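step 4 of 6: structure.
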Amino acid sequence: MGHTRLGDIPRTRKWQEVVSLISGGAGAPQVANGVIRAAEQGLQLATEHKALVEAFWLLTQLPLAAKTRDLAAALRERGLNVSSDPGLMDVVAALSEAVDARLPNNSGRTDLGEMAQAAASEAIVQVVTEKTQSLFGTTPEDVKAGLAGLGTVKQFGLFAKQFYARLTEKVLQYYVSRVTAGAVGGQELRFQTLASKAEFDKALNLHCREASKIVEAFAGEWFSKTKWENQGISRDDAVRFSHVAMQKMVAELKAGAR
Amino acid sequence: MTPATKTILCGEAATSKRTHGSTLCLRNAGKNPDIHLQIDDISRALMTNLPHQMVDLIEIAAFVYVADQFFPRGGSGVEDMGANWRRPLHFEIPVRWLDFWRRDDVTTALRETLSFLSEDEYEFTFRRYEKPPPIDGYLNLADTDTRPEQVVLFSGGLDSLGGAVEEIVAAGRPVALVHHQATTKLINRHRMLRDMLDERAKGPRPLYVTVRINKKKNLNHEYTQRTRSFLYASLAASIAGMCGLHCIRFYENGTVSLNLPIAREVVGAKATRTTHPRVLAGFAQLFSLVTDSSFSVENGFLWKTKEDVIRGIVDAGCSGMIEWSTSCAHTWEMTNQHPHCGTCSQCIDRRFAILAAGAGNFERTESYAVDLLAGPRPEGEARTMLASYVEVASQVSTMTEMEFFMRFGEVARIVRHLGGSADESARKIYDLHRRHAQSILRVIDEGLAIRASQVRSRSLPEGSLLRMVHDPSITGAAVAPAAAVEAVRGDPDGDYVLRRRGDGWLFRFAGHELVWLKPMIGYCYICELLRFPGKRFTLSELLIVVHGSRAMLPLGDGAELLDGQARVAYKQRLSELDEEIEAMRANNDLGALEGLQAEREQVQSEIKKAWFRKRSKRGNSDLNRVRNSVSNAIRRAYQGIQAYEPDGAQHLSSTTSLGFNVIYNPAERLPWSL
């Protein structure tokens, strides 16, 4: 019963430009540039995606909650339903459920929101396990220490960068994979083998990580300043940040191939 | 933009017989109903135990299932980020037990389960039936005494066959197999499986309950059918309820049940959530409310791969049944010779698992219209699906657990619905997917070994899987980006590049990144200009160099619009008009004066049209048209470059002069590699 549905790229001029870039042999930065130009209108609405804002806001709450004595209670206050001694996957799952709870009955849900939700989960796993170098050996204390460590300008900047790099890659691949996977296996096609396509995907991933550096410094400073001035970070603060961050990312990706 | 709400008026709520716009009327009773549900082979004795709320549940599930197939999900999601994939659906449904269905906990459970299952937005308005259709109208009763101890969903695919074998053959348990007959094409194949299961049953023969939904043909517009499992599960739960049981069981292998996305474009419920643990938990909650008991919905194969399932069938001595099971999603392509298309995700999954389990001998290779390893796949979804499937397996096979969860954030939605701790469930999920990925790669490796000579001689068709994973014509890592393509085909050295590559062009300026430009004739002109900086090209020269013998050269000149004779004539007439105007003014003949002034203005206008900077303009000619054509082509090329390399576009436009003569003349010569 596991039917999966794949989609096409539209036959409009802007999207066919992306198709010709990929089939013609353009590199990852140029493809990213082409995709962003084609998808710009949809992405400008990104700040209105409730799931994206909620996911980012919850990420800002993790280091704040971890600074308190009782992590579990602090997380529950912020809508994350965790056990009294939460493990890493417990926190990740609770965050995902909290985002879902913000969109009851799928109201306002979009694919971008879904990608943001997954990107947030992935970013948490990355930052917490970077120190422990293991997922399954992570104790609740490791989780608390890992999340608390994200509260500095530098570490929150890196955390936000991880989130935006993952989100950006997901968004680009959301479009690009519709073309690249079908462009494998033929002398006339862009990728003669799956290995060459995998190399392209790696290059695109690297490009997203590079591009997301634009968010890093900005996010760290914003987190520290907002937390200090407002005695915390509200959802409205997160909306404003998301708007600026997305604009910066779009501008960076458009400039990427230059 | 939020899609418009679709209203579905069901049963007695369907006051109008006509469906229009975003309103769908579904009548389930009376003459010529839109949908008719039929459940075969229910025992007379069991039927008496079917409470009203169960009948309501079945009807609700049927209405939801039909509406799900009626309203199309919008487009590919590219332009709207999938906003139109999710449909707001508002149902008005008559029920027998209104107080129950209006309870907050019941509507919440119903809405939450369905909204996660199909990613639609659900609203329900319930009203009391005035004259409910009798339940026995849905049933074809049979005289059977079988009292099942377990109710199992049976689709006739490999996983559900594995479950049936485990229950009926291995454990010898009396079971009811609930089966939805979606197409008549499968009747014979299912009958064969039934006969074989009856023959091998260690306990009593199973009870087969076949469900059919007959609906009008004009109700089929959307094939994704995400709510199908809700209908199956509701029917199964009702039958379990009749038998006094509080459990139903799906059998679906873990990787398909969890259904992590096999391609990056697959987001949300584009990967089905038919037996997703959260969905099963939602079903259990809803059925518990309906039956007023603790009801469970299980997946017996959650921690098994499909390969494990097939090994179980073979170990139980039922390998002969494999051939008669059907997994293909593209039932419309099905023929007796090729019951499987070989290209849909289910066919790919099935064939990999069969080969991995060493059960390839138990089904005909020709069962698949396209062979998994060596069959040519056309460009498009067929190739995309396989490439994505194998690529994900390839990635997962080498991932550490951290990398796995850093790649599949979707796991967050699963880990707390499996019992046990979230970390423990995460570990099991990782192990399951690693095993699955490794079995896929093992099949490919074995395929490569068996067909080594065909691979070496490149006699396998293009677009076949083995050709996609290994092409001996490619040396080294064929890195994909333009720069890397160049590395394979001969790298254009230098910081300044404009070179034709395939249909398009490669361009680099001032050592920046190499970019690919789509084909345009303007690049050909620019390339020629760059080859000879400082040289003044006439249009004919440029055309001949670029187009060769096909060049359409300008044939003639439109000549001056005002020649010497015309100029003298106009000048003379103007002088005469001035004198006449003075005379008429003196005589105060206003009528004649007006006429003369009009004529003077007309003459001046003609002179103005033909005169520019003290010279006569030239008439429209081939030369003018060609000049415009070349200039515009070069300007369009600048725009193409501007999008990716604005510095390069600026340099070219500022150093190239266009017109009847074209010249690229930079102050400093740049080392162009052309």
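step 5 of 6: annotate
 - Residues 50-151 of chain A form one domain.
 - Residues 153-180 of chain A form the longest helix (28 residues).
step 6 of 6: archive
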